[in-house]
Amino acid sequence: MSFPFLPRAVAKRKPTNVSAAKVNTPLGSVPTTSQPNASSKGKEKAPEGPSAEECAFLVSLALSEYALWEDPDLRMKLDEDDGYISTHHLLFHCQVLAPLRKVPQTVLVKHLKTHLAGTLDFRMMVAEPKPWFNRSGEASSQQPGGLGGYEMRLKAPSTSIVVLSKLDWEKRMVYVENVPIQYRNITALVKFLLALLPAHHELPVFSRIQNVYLPPHHQDKPGDLPTFKGFALVTFRREPDAQCVLKSWPWQPDPSEPKLGHASGSTEGEAASDARKFGFRATGKATWEALRVEYLVYRQQLVEEINAFQDSSASKSATIHTTTTASNEPPVTTRMEPSLKVQKQPKVPTDSSQNKVITLSSPYPYGCLLFIKNIHHETNKTTLKVFFGKALANASGGIDYVDFNKGMDTCYLRVSTPPSAQLLSDQFTSNVIVQTNGLDDTGSSILSSKQKDVKPIVVEVVSGRREEMYWQKVPERISRGAVEKAVKLQCKAGAGDKEEDGGERQPGGDNRPKKRRKR
């Protein structure tokens, strides 16, 4: 005879008041779940999404009159199906709505009903029930259908919207620059500009600004939302609003005239104060396009000058190498590459930085910075340090740091002492060396290289204003350590020279070494 197994803890446990309360809970009510404590171990508060106001601003920009005028596909979509458009389609069709794609549609619609109830209509889409299979493998359709999302439409039909021409919209476009840091996103910029404008009771606040265009960077991928870098092209609904911004914050302000920023409230006053602090200014679209063309021409001139300088440096290095090879005897065959042979030759200072003496009070080590060109674009810092370090194997100082960014064919080298910098520069000037691949840490002569259209490595000692500007960007702790290291190595080199001479020189022209006392 067997009895049912009852756990001891369950058998002795008595019902508490909490359990009684749970039993008496009505069937129609849903028990509330306790929220996890943010300070509990392993539990962190989830990051908050966009606020209801931010959602309303972004959707207003996506469905503005300018957006419908500029995007014919969106306008045709709104003309179908009674003017309703799927929320999912709108989120992935409009680039400005990219920050809202991770927000649940239920939460998004709730936010929009809070601020845009007089502008938008909403309706729910119910999807058809999908068949599912039970354990026996038979199809069943008893599973209730899930929500299919939401649709929205403008209460005012698109046919009733006043259509403006391209010239009319361009009069309402304003290019703004030097936007304060705390307003450098689309919704913050919209609220910032609205704070600078006077109040207008007839036009809804969410429709006063129609579009915010962020000029993309040349390295941005197509389809990505450009990063806000402090400037944007803003389109207003009313032309007086655009003129107000242009007059209040001109491109070239007159110092004698005070700013006309609107400051009727605390928020507006704070925005105007921040605008003056950061030098906020605005200009029309025509002026912005003229400045943009001028900048592109100037940038092209700089690129051509840099290319011409690199070509002249490469041809000069090739000429020096040809002259040296023709005048010297054939070198002895060794395992070491010609670029890595260190020759002790007297060096003549070629710039003013070499004449400066490095002391402990120096702001940075003079003559210890090198600019390298024509390295392989697939190389890395480790390979470059080994590549150039072999040329300084017998020198008093080595390479301290390789300032290199991936994908570039140029870099900066920081060496320990000025003689090391000059030695490295002379070594690559007299021997035309190329880097055949990204992992080549030895180098080869340009004559023996099988690759065509490859330029030799050029090493330049940076001096003067360029050297000073570079070290200004380096942390003071690092530059101070570089100075101390250079002074220490120079002191060691001076002591070594005295030991090679057999002791210190006697004053008064007596060059005999000091006699050492025997113990």
UniProtKB/TrEMBL annotation:
Region (Disordered) residue spans: 1-50, 250-273, 317-356, 492-519
Keywords, in A-Z order: RNA-binding
Signal peptide span: none
Domain of life of the source: Eukaryota
Gene3D superfamilies membership: 3.30.70.330
Ranges for domain XRRM: 363-518
GO cellular component labels: ribonucleoprotein complex
Composition bias, Polar residues: 26-40, 317-331
Keyword rRNA-binding listed: no
GO biological process: telomerase catalytic core complex assembly
Pfam families documented for this protein: xRRM
GO molecular function annotations of the record: telomerase RNA binding
PROSITE patterns noted in UniProt: XRRM (PS51939)
UniProt name for this protein: XRRM domain-containing protein
Record organism: Coprinellus micaceus
